[in-house]
Amino acid sequence: MASSETGGRVFADLMRLAEVVEPGQPGWTRRVFSAEYLRSRELVWELMESAGLEVRRDPAGNLIGTLEGTDAQLPALILGSHTDTVAGGGRFDGPCGVMAAIEVVRRINERGGRPRRTIWVVDFLGEEPNDFGISCVGSRAVAGHLSPEHLQLTDRSGRTLAEALAAVGGDPDRIGEACWPEGTASAYLELHVEQGSRLEEAARGLAVVTAIAGIHRAEIRLEGRADHAGTTPMDRRSDALLAAAEVSLEVERLGRREGRGVATVGRLELEPNSPNVVAERAVLIAEYRSGDAVWLATTDDLLQEVVENAPARRGVRGSLAWLSREEPTICAEELRSVLLESAREIGEEPLELPSWAGHDAVQMAAVCPVAMLFVPSRGGRSHCPEEWTDPEQVEVGTRALVAAVTRLAV
Ligand SMILES: [Zn+2]
């Protein structure tokens, strides 16, 4: 049966790629600037080429495979994802989208005839965070968002991002040429594993992503007074640690509002951080995520109020500075409809979900309309060796992608 062969081929490619991992690292580790990453992309290149794609590496180190369409006037349809992993990561986050995209091209070629619209399959360089403190390196360059300042960022060994990029086949001096001029792309589709458990809990095979969560991050400073832990009565204290505890609980309450977002305090630093001194200063970082820009904006205001009021009740001064405010990426309405119809065409009734993790699609949204398809992650596990998607589930995702590309490009 052609359909099970399809899923089988994508799954087999995923397992082949998973053989190229960093020795001595846990799980399936293939970090962006490792020797194994460089080597693994020879396999990606080979798979693209044998699927009938014309392959090139751009100055940002992205691998781009082209299937020329019959109408050269039409902007290209872009399919892609990434093949790097986090340390101790899994075999599906990223590669699933690249391997499925290559399979789409195989299927089109096996059907015979060229598509009307040119199709590009892209393996974006380094989507996961790295030692240079920057994620989505390749897609950022495509969007024109990789600045000369970014290229001068250094890792712990003092190597610059520009040097690291050159070592994996990029050309930092020509980085501007990696940016796609307007009119290059008509749309970007990315298949990815959900990295959550909504699909599994609903016993569905596919989700159409509504939006990719925006992230707002604030540093909150709380200034109290250092005092002797024995001689200072309880009602004479300005305890920055307790103010931080109250602020953290308020942040949790804000995150629970309306079920439309999440909120986390993942970092807390104390001074003097001593067992017999009332804490003088606390610095914490609060972050919020939501696919809903209005919810994020309202949360900003509410957090501001919390920082003004909660510490004051303890004689502590609170102040807030925004570290970053990335707005949600909204998936294009018309592409979402195409994905919904494509899923139904293959007998699936998809969920519609926001993505709580970032993706290359966020950068691509600056270039063209974007949309994403999710396939299930067993137990919602991701960024760990247990990350798993069944071969049949990979197949369903691939077939939906084939159906969508048929609607958009053939
Ligand atoms: Zn990913």
Write the layout of secondary structure elements.
Layout: H1 2-17, H2 35-50, E1 54-57, E2 63-67, E3 76-82, H3 95-111, E4 119-124, H4 137-142, H5 148-151, H6 161-167, E5 185-193, H7 198-202, E6 207-212, E7 214-223, H8 240-256, E8 262-271, E9 281-290, H9 293-309, E10 317-326, E11 329-330, H10 333-345, E12 351-355, H11 360-364, E13 370-375, H12 391-409
Parallel strand pairs: 3-4, 3-5, 5-13, 6-12
Antiparallel strand pairs: 1-2, 2-4, 6-11, 6-13, 7-9, 7-10, 8-9
Helix pairs in contact: 1-3, 1-12, 3-12, 8-9, 10-12
This protein binds zinc ion.
Question: How does this structure look, described?
Answer:
The structure is a single chain. By secondary structure, this protein is α/β, with parallel strands linked by helices. It folds into two domains: 2-212 and 329-409, Aminopeptidase (3-Layer(aba) Sandwich); 214-326, 2-Layer Sandwich (Alpha-Beta Plaits). The protein is 35% helix and 22% strand. The protein contains twelve helices and 13 strands. β1 (54-57) and β2 form a beta hairpin. The longest helix has 19 residues, at 391-409. It is elongated. The protein starts with a helix and ends with a helix. The structure holds zinc ion.
